[in-house]
Amino acid sequence: MIFTTQKITESYWKVAINHPPVNVFDPEFSVQLRTLMDELEANENLKVVVFESSNPDFYVAHAELVNIFDFPKGEGKTGLSKSWPDIAKRLEQAPFVSIASIRGRARGLGSEFIQAFDMRFASKEKAVFAQPEIGIGSFPGGGGLERLHLLTGKARALEIILSGDDYDAQTAADYGWVNRAFPDNELDAFVENLARRIDSFDLKIIKKIKATMNERVIIPQNEHIMETQIAFFASLTEPEARTRIKKLLDQGLQTYGDVELNLGKYL
Amino acid sequence: MIFTTQKITESYWKVAINHPPVNVFDPEFSVQLRTLMDELEANENLKVVVFESSNPDFYVAHAELVNIFDFPKGEGKTGLSKSWPDIAKRLEQAPFVSIASIRGRARGLGSEFIQAFDMRFASKEKAVFAQPEIGIGSFPGGGGLERLHLLTGKARALEIILSGDDYDAQTAADYGWVNRAFPDNELDAFVENLARRIDSFDLKIIKKIKATMNERVIIPQNEHIMETQIAFFASLTEPEARTRIKKLLDQGLQTYGDVELNLGKYL
Amino acid sequence: MIFTTQKITESYWKVAINHPPVNVFDPEFSVQLRTLMDELEANENLKVVVFESSNPDFYVAHAELVNIFDFPKGEGKTGLSKSWPDIAKRLEQAPFVSIASIRGRARGLGSEFIQAFDMRFASKEKAVFAQPEIGIGSFPGGGGLERLHLLTGKARALEIILSGDDYDAQTAADYGWVNRAFPDNELDAFVENLARRIDSFDLKIIKKIKATMNERVIIPQNEHIMETQIAFFASLTEPEARTRIKKLLDQGLQTYGDVELNLGKYL
């Protein structure tokens, strides 16, 4: 079980992510996340869900690169690819509020994972963010080219994506990548208080606020997301990408060790 | 007289807001604000107007909740509701520059009031911001769902609106809710210098800059503003809202005291 | 030679700007910049270019005001005016990445110059930013009314343009005007590392990321840029502008001295 759901109340759930050794987003992660999403949507009383990692060093490391062509195929409920874009869209459009509470690395698809949540809060000491795809001869394929600039603006999104480098939580907060960064020992109390507050409010008002906000703001277009995802998968078959990926895997990518801890330096 | 206008020069006016005990935005506030707006628009030489509060603890507390259905009815000059949306639109489209210099609480309609100004500056020690409507079983009805995300982005607007909690001035500045936060003893000098500078420039150039900027940026749509306002008033007739409002009024809402000073904790 | 190009590698170039005494953007600057732009575009292997100033006090001071009507006339490759808007558009659409590394003043057209780059980094101690056009009876005519609000949001863009005042690098970073501000002794190492990283990545991926991002974000409209530029030139023929410009020139504008160093105070 990658996702363990703790029902704090009927309407406030907490999900722990645990997929050793580094919480890669692999085909199995995708399958179980879809099952979890079905469960969240089936609870019509759900007001708020918080996603944490059980691994203090990794929130969601990135997409698994050896079996990346084994992700679930086909369309999900939204018409978007089942692999992940469909779930991202469902989180965005969900009647409940989704919060990412982040310790550890959230790179690549891990960064795109949190971009699909309504809000993001991070530990100043422990959270690390990156879109490292350029280092494997590719580019963000899971929404980063569609969502990151909505959070950070174009100039900072280009910097993040073209550098492929690691960003600490304070810089991520300064850029809008996350809502706010907190000292590690304050993060849990803040998120708990926020979730409890939301849980204390009226369900239909929460739904109304999310639905109205989604009508007011710019939402990534489905065609853009699919166009980028298709190009992303195609890029991975190129010799350049295969060479870069092989080298990183040989150095220890996807195992617990220095490459995963300090990926920015290895690209 | 809720609004006292001080004519620093022919083209630079300062308005003090004083409506004891806590500067609620009530029907009388709306009526007098419209008269003031007429006066500002009638002065064709006006370049800049600064709005301050005479009450160090409250800028504009929020909408008055007992007589909330007594707000002026009908359409104003812009086709928007006279109660407030028409004035907000007129501030946005005005040829003169409007500046909010903020000490004290600006919550709910008080926060939406300042969002309609061209610029906002706040005291780090004394300014407090919130969209607390969710705590009375409702949502921002005076433009908050249309304007706040243009200042803060979607994620932070959702956090603010769904938490209903109090935000200090530095966080408000980090989020873009206000332009900048200053130590309390520097705020007046900054705003005075800024207003004097603008007052020293050419009137037709000021008009040209505001008009051009309004053509370049995303402006809230009138239909969205009215749709939300109508839904807001409807929500207040629901039992959930009536119960929540009654409880807060019984605790001391709209009087000078701890509920108004620390509303975030009471919701 | 205003621009000296150093070819660090075949695909990473560095350009030094040197046009004594204060790096004004004059007709000669425009002509040579177009030649440089042709050269950058002709290098199909170029991945990244960094623009620095050789003058520690001035990055690009502003548009030259005595010979401002002698800028190159006619349309460039993009259909926009050759004088500058065409080059700005070509930088935006270029397959390579452009980075401004900023020490010294970047005011007016100097500020608009850096807004056309993909990314901007500034020295906390030495960089100064302004859109001072209002002080000469005009408004930003080189893209500032079209691009600045995309970086800073409307409220802060209005503040900057209507105040005409000087902004330090930290405030510019807080506002999004630049990506980040660094202590002066860290700026070069950061930019060098970033440029080297980009230079180490795959050329076609860099092109793909820039092209896709440009399709995802809001890009200033050509008609808006030309409309503003035409109005800008017209404004300079007005008596108000001519009087203000003459006074500043008499005080020492465009020479190395206190007016140029502290222009914000003189407007």
Describe the protein.
3 copies of one chain form a homotrimer. Chain A has about 270 residues and is α/β, with parallel strands linked by helices. Chain A has one domain (about 5-200, about 215-265): 2-enoyl-CoA Hydratase, Chain A, domain 1, CATH 3.90.226.10. In chain A, about 45% of the residues lie in helices and about 20% in strands. The first copy, chain A, has helices at about 25-40, 85-95, 110-115, 145-150, 155-165, 170-175, 185-200, 205-215, 220-235, 240-250, 260, 265, and strands at about 5, 10-15, 50-55, 60, 95-105, 120-130, 165-170, 180. In chain A, strands 1, 2, 3, 4, 5, 6, 7 and 8 form an 8-stranded mixed β-sheet that branches. In chain A, strand 5 (about 95-105), helix 3 (about 110-115) and strand 6 (about 120-130) form a beta-alpha-beta unit. In chain A, helix 3 (about 110-115) packs across helix 4 and helix 4 (about 145-150) crosses helix 5. The first copy, chain A, is globular. Chains in contact: A-B, A-C, B-C. The interface of A and B includes residues 176, 179, 201, 202 and 217 of A. Chains A, B, C: It comes from Chryseobacterium arachidis. Chains A, B, C: GO terms for molecular function: catalytic activity. Chains A, B, C: Pfam families: ECH_1. Chains A, B, C: This is Enoyl-CoA hydratase/carnithine racemase.
